[in-house]
Amino acid sequence: MAAFLKRFTPARVALGRSGHSLPTAELLRFQLDHARARDAVYEELDAASLRLPHLLLHSAAPDRATYLRRPDLGRKLNADSRALLVPGDYDAALVIADGLSAPAVHHHAAPLLEALLPLLEGWRLSPSSVVLQGRVAIGDEIGEALGARQVAVLIGERPGLTSPDSLGIYLTWDPRPGRNDAERNCISNVRTEGISYSLAARKLHFLMEQARVRQLTGVELKEDLRIEP
User: Fold this and answer.
1) pTM of the predicted structure, to 2 decimals
2) Cβ distance 227 to 195 under 8 Å?
3) How many domains does the chain have?
4) With a cut of 50, which residues of the chain have pLDDT below it?
């Protein structure tokens, strides 16, 4: 039965027991996965390792410890970074942020963009940005400063015991500070064991096209693209 259940989920099911506790192997596996999740939260993003042309920006959080204690500082840029943004006539802006898992960005941001950019041929895209110590809402300030009609933020999601490197995508039409999560669309769990790069790119492209037509994102925009993974 245990082997049968484990075929369908990476979650901890049918672990067995040793006396009143878990088997030693399962306990050690739990401790290892917990350590990987903690390491992901504290790991610093190496923007150069992405091998992508980008504008490097910083949030108002000066370091990782402050970022974790002060979520509000991760939602806005510092003064030097704001001065780097030059407005233009852009259909969309693409922003990469470390979020709560730099490994997610290290592993998945570049291959996702490789799948996405050919789908956006003909779009006027702003220069891509990489934000250190950034949270989702920082894309609103960036998008507004660049004059972009919509912004897609690729960000490391909160690590779990089975997924320390899951990448999320948040799309916002008419970005500006003060937008809330109900005004965004999210594609979650982009990783090798989750949503593939190709599928995530097609979903995002569909949402971006629909956002441009309907001039909105969020709860009123449904992702109902009928495609196979």
Assistant:
1) 0.93
2) no
3) 1
4) 229
